[in-house]
Every structure is written in structure tokens, then in C-alpha cells.
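A common beginner's mistake is to predict each chain separately and then try to dock the pieces by hand. The better habit, illustrated here, is to supply every component at once so that their relative placement is modeled jointly.
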Amino acid sequence: MIEVSNLVKTFDGFRALDGLDLHVPKGGIYGLVGPNGSGKSTVIRHITGIYRPDSGLVAVDGQPVYENPAVKRRIAYISDDVYAFLSANIRDMRDFYRGIYPQFDMQRFEALREAFPLDEKKAIRHLSKGMQKQAAFWLAMCCRPDYLILDEPVDGLDPVMRRRVWSILMGDVADRGTTVLVSSHNLRELEDVCDHVGIIDHGRVLIERSLSELQDNIVKLQVVFRGGQDESLPGLDILHRSTSGRVHTVIVRGSQAAITARMTEIDPLFFDLLPLTLEEIFIYELGGADYAVKDIVL
Amino acid sequence: MQSKTSFFDWTLARKGLRRTMPLWLTHLVIWVFAMPIMVVNLGPNVGNILDMSEYIYYTVHIGGTLMAFFFCAAIVEVQNSYLCTARSVSFYHALPVRRGTIFCTNTLLTLAVLLVPMVLVAAMTLAIEYSLGLGGGLIYLVKWLGMYAAMCLFFTGFATLCSHITGHVAAAPILYVVLNFTVVVVEWVVRYIPTLFLYGVSFNGSTRLGWMSPIWHIYTECCPQMEYTEDMQPLRLFYDGSGYLWGLALCGLVLLALAWLFYRRRQSESAGEFVAVPALRPVFKYCVTAGCTLLLSILFYAVSYQIRSDARPSVPWYTVCMLIAAAIGYFGSEMVLRKSFRVFRSWKGFAAAALVILLCGGVLGFDLLGVESYVPQASEVAYVELQSYYNQNFRAKVIPEDPCFDNVLALHRLILDNKETSQNLVYDWYAGTSGSEQYDYDYIRLDYYMNDGSTVGREYYLPIAAEAENDGEIQDVFGYLALVDSIYETPEVIRRAYSVLWDDAPFYQLYYGGVQLAGIWDDEDVLSYTVYADLLEALRADLLEGSLVSNRNDYYYSAEAEDGQRVFCLNLEFERRSEEDPVYRSYEFYVTPEAARTWAVLNDPASYQEQPDWAGEAHSDLLPADNRIGRDTQVIFLPARPRLPVTIL
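With all components supplied together, the output reads:
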């Protein structure tokens, strides 16, 4: 389990992480989402032991990560910007990782060769961005990590390769109980693979729940009122509201059962409850945190 | 494979070895040419192992220093370049390897790739020496290796510290080169600036803190030395300055420890910053400001003002130059640190710097420290050396016990009292103003060697006498000349100046004496060894009597001024045979007609190895102008300079 508690990080007076708390349960895929500059990459760099916290705790299975090789040996990290030594090819990097990670699995390296059709003798820096990402996945998966930390992992990969990568990842999660922490802006994709989601903004985690809990806690309500009926929907925690003709679309925080009960009491001409996508949850939750989607009038 | 030791990682080492291969391979090839191949080539011409080892020591001294300076920095730069980009630093610091392991691995690898090949080079050299029949070189090769290792340790430590202070790929080498020469350059500039504005204050280029700029110190103060036997056979070889090199090695370890402390606390996010340690950013800013103030201000002042021929020192203008230079340094460093041109709002720091500069300008302009007007007390002085261009830069050493010592202080005070007049005349002369040309100008230098080991140096360019157009009569306008002469003609000073004739006579022997007409260097009449003793006796008597003139520029040049005239000149060369290298001293005397005892020797044709053209002619017969001696050159004999009345104010 990855535990981050009360983490603070300041860059030249700017508080990038402001007492952040994060809990990534073991054996699942945790999606970390948030607007640009919210602190996603910063928290990931703390979890991988790159940054030293100003204060707070970053621990994996109860052990602090920073300057702890025993813990870091169980973590593989793929950054949004893949690094390889100058003129190093995949084989060079494989040999390097074999030296650094004792559990590096050569059989897996051979097995994954088919999944990643890359020229192993070509310098990695001469590969395309997508190919560099593939190489990074190939090598990282061979390290047999207990924790896989991914920062914008599929950015640059084609749709086929994305599916292949997620398939391999989910295979590892299922077979070995690998814990995956993934930061991405591609919420539709995260929705398909994540079982837990944390929304981060201004250096703090706003919401951290399982995806089902999250989707159960916020619903889209479509309602048509009777003539002369009060349209203010009293007793509901409304996050957003829009109207098209007589149809009112309202984003409401709360469980489906509670909202259904309340709407039955109000008794409109018609109402329906729809589940929100992760993208919609992200937009409407952050709307309450001064990150509302604003209509832009040109 | 993970290393069992926590301070070294073989995987990182292997990677480092590959990355730095072009550098250490080049380093090795250069040394193979500089050592084994050099020994092969020199072997037939070098008769013994000491001479051969001296060559080897010189490779450390000349090439080795630069090699260590460059290759240590280059390899450290390659090894630590990962600290300079966010991508690479994230990669390294995400690896399951402690920072201490990375640091130690990189440092040990740097030293290993530089020094292990050197063991190979030393072994090859030793084998070649033995094959050439030059046995016994092992000890010198081990010392050579030790000295080179000491240099490598220091420069590796220095470069490592620089790379851990900075987070920018270009900053580390800049910092490394600049810091290596900072102390000596700053000392030069700080000691040079007062010479521009304070009357008489001088700087001869010597440094007290040069040891803090290692390359400078090694090249100027360290050197291989050979001791010789009486018959000039090499006896012992040693490197003068090896203690300094061991000190450098120790210093290198301290720098490495310091670098490790910085690295341990270093924030990965500082990659790309010019100064990676936040606490050092203000230090950097104000050091750059001070450096620019010192260096650029001189340049600005020279270009904007001093270049004029009639320019007199102007402290206000120099202060303006300092302020401009400080602004460049201050806001330039702010731009580098902030990576932005919008830095002018942080003017408060510059205002503080400007206040300090104005204060310095005031101190300099009003001589608030009293540097210019300082004349040492006799009780403070161990001895003083007086040098006068008028006396052919002859350096007269005077100690407080000498009767003429008060005259030295009186001369100094007299010069200061006449500062305004003298400076006006000198600057008028520079500017070509009418009236100034009627004076002869002299350069007078006073070096006080104080009891506390310090030195106080002053030099003055003075109008010392009226032109010699007045029938050769010298007009001692300010009284300088009489004081200078009184010092030069003091018997104690003469005995000290010509110590080879008195106190040092037991250690020196005259090995060459010749008579020459000054200016005709290829035509010299060589004196016979048999007259050396008589000649030296005569010289002692005439010198003390003041009838033998030596080192007088006024005579020399006034004689040369007339075409065809030459001054009769006696050249003597002495040699000291000591345990170390022999020491040679040369003297040149312009013989006056009054030097009767010297003339008694020189006039005797039997005193020469070959009979001179003018043999048999009495020197008095050669005077005056129309006397020819078989050449187209007229020989003139200079009169002793008239004694001038000394007036001590």
C-alpha cells in the first residue's frame, strides 16, 4: 500500500503540495487525476523517491521511500518524458536494469518481444516518442515491480498499442497483485481500467474513492416540471444546472436512492437519473473548487 | 548484479566507464606519448636515471598539471551531467540506489580511470628505463605517480564540488575555471587599483594568496630541482613544492566531503538552475557583482578615460565606472538566477552594493586609510631598497643602522611634500605642455621590507633635475638627486651592493673580466687572470672613495647621445659554487679618470690576455675629444659626478 500523508512541497515559495493525503490500496489500479499544475507529477516524484518531502510522509508498505533502495527496488517508474543514456539502445538499457534490479526477468523480456516490435539495436533517442514509451514499458514490466508508477503512460501510443499495454498491465495486476498508480488526463481510458480514483487540485486531494463509490455519489438528473411547479429542487445538493426547453439537466451530489426518494416527493412531470462518466465527475467536482467549465463567448 | 558494498555500484560504474571512455582513452594515449615513448627517445642522450627522472618530473610539472586540470573536470562533468536536466535526474534518483552510492561510484570511477592507466604507464616506463640500462627509477616513478594522483584528487574534488553547486550544464565548467583563478586575479586587481589613484603606490605583480589558485602556484612556485656534486654530477632529485601537492590532495578530500554534503541536501528539482544550492544564490549574486565591479570597472575606466594622454587620475569617474560594472554584475546574475529579464524590481540589493562602492570610492579618493601619505618609521623597517633609473635601476639596500637611512625617509617625505608640483610637471610632460621638457625625469622606487614580514612598495616618476644643457651642470631642482646620491655613495650601501667584493668575497670568484667600449659588444679586451687580485683590490678602494662610477644612466646616455662616442666600461663576472646550482653575478663599471687605482691596473698592457689597440696610452692621454685609438670611435671617460649638498627638510 502506498501511503502519503500531510505531504508538503514548496518550490521557490510556491506551495506545490499543501498537506496532501493519498492512499493507494494494494493490488489495484489507482487513477490520479487533476488539472494542469495541480501537483500530480510532484506527488508521483515523491512516491518514486525522486523528491525529498519538505514535510509529511511518503511510505510504501509502511517503509519511507526516500533514499530507501529496498523499497525503491520494488517500484518501477515510467515518466511522461522517457530517459535513456546517450546512444544507449534497448539492449544496453536492459543490461543496465538487470544490474540495478536483481529481480529483472529475462524470460519476460523475451516473452514481451512480440508485444513490442522495436529495433533493439537502435539508439532509444532515435526512436519515436511512442516507441520510446513502448521501450520504457517493456523494460519496466521486466523489472517485475510490486508497484508501478506511471505518469501519462500511454501518451503517444497508438490505440492498438494502448490496448496492448493496458492488457499487459492488467494481466500483471491480476496475476501478481501489482499495484499501479497512474496519472493521466485521458479520463475515458482511466474509467475503463481504474478501480480507485483520486482527484487532486492545488496540491491537495479533493476526493479519493473507488470508482463505483465515486459514480454512486454523484448523478445526472433530468427533470421536466409540471406547469407552475417550484423548479428550485429544494433538499438536493446541486452542483450544476442547465436548461434546454422544458428539460432541466441537474448534477446532484448524493446517492441514487436518496435522490430518487426526494424526486418522488417533489413529483415532477418526469425525471430520470443517469450515471456520470469520470470526465463529468472530474469537471463538476472541480467546478466546486473554482475550476468550473466556463462558457466562452467569442 | 547488485553490489554487496553500499558505497559502490558496479552497474553504474560500468555505465560510467563506457560514457567516459573517449576521455580516459585520450588521457592514456597522451601519457603513453609523454612518458614511455619520450623515455625511448631520450634514452640514448641521457646518461643517468636522475636526469631521466628529472624529465619525468617535468612532465608532471608542465603537462601533468594541465592534464589533471582538464581531464578531471571533463570526466566529472560527464559523470555528473545527469544533475542538469529534470529528465535525467529523475531517472537516476528513481533508481534503487542511494545518493551516497552514486556519489562514491562516480568519484572512485573518475579517479580510477585517470590513475589506473597511469600505473600501466609507469610500469611501461620502468621497463623501458631498465632496458636502456637506467636502473633505480622506481622510486621516482612512484613519486611521480603520487604527485599526479595528488593533483587528480584535488581537481576531481574541485570539479565535483562545482558540479554539485550548480544545476546547469554550462555553469559547472565556468565555475570550475573561474574559481581556479579567482583568488590570484582578485588579489592582482585589488592591489592594482590603488596604483591608479594613490600617489606612489605600486604593485609589482607578486601575490600573497597565489597559493589559493593551484595552477598558478604550481607553475610559478613548484619545480623539479636537482642537486649536483662538486664536479657537476647529479646527486639528488626532488620536486620543490611536493608538500604543496600533498596539501592539495588533502584539500581535494575536503572538497569531496563538502560536495557530498551539498549533494545529500540537494533538491532534484534544482536541475537546470545555475546555482542549485538555494543558500548560495545570494553569495553567487554578490560575488558576481564584486567580480564585475573589480574587473569591468578597470576596463571601462581605461577605455572611457585613461586612454587619453593628458588624463589625470579621476576617482569620481572611476566610481561611476564601478557603479556601471556593478549594475551589470548584479542584474546580470539576477537574470541568470531567475531566468528572466524582469529583474530590475529587486533594486534594493543593488542599492546596498552601490553604497559600498561609493564608500570605497570615498576611501580611495580621499585616501582615508592614509596609504599614500604613509612613510614607515625606522623602528618598523627591517631594510629598504632604493632603486633609481637615474642610477641604472641599481638597487641600494639600506638598513636602519646605516647613517643614510634617515636620508631614505627624508627622500620619501620630500617626494610626498612635492606631490602636486611633481605630478603637474609629469602630467604636463605626458601632455607635451611647454616648460615641462626642461626637466630630466627619474623613476624612483622604494621597497620597505618590514619587521613583520610585509612589504611596502612605492614608486614615483619625478622631475629630478634640469636638462643637462647648462654646460653639464646638474641642477638639483627639488633636492631629490642629492639625497639619492648620498644614499648610493654611503660606504655601507656600496659594500652591501658589491658584496662579492667584501662580505661574500670568500664564496665568489671572479672568472671573467673585460674592458669594453659601451655599446660595442663584440669588441672586448679580456683581462688576464693574473691581475684579478690586484684589480679587485683597486676596485674596493676606488668604490669606497667614490671615484669609481658605476651604473649611471645619465653618463651612459649622455655619452651615447653624441655620435661616435663610447664610454669606457669594465665588465666583471663572478661565480658562486655552492651545494646547489652555481650562482652568477655580473657588474658593469664606468671608469672615471679619478679612479686612479683601477686605472693603474687597466692601463698596464700586461693586464690583458691580448694586447689591446690602445695599449701604452695613458688614459689621461686619451682625453679629451680628438684622441683616437685606432678606431673610429672616440673614447671618453666620464667624470665622477659632483657631490651635491644634501638638505633634509
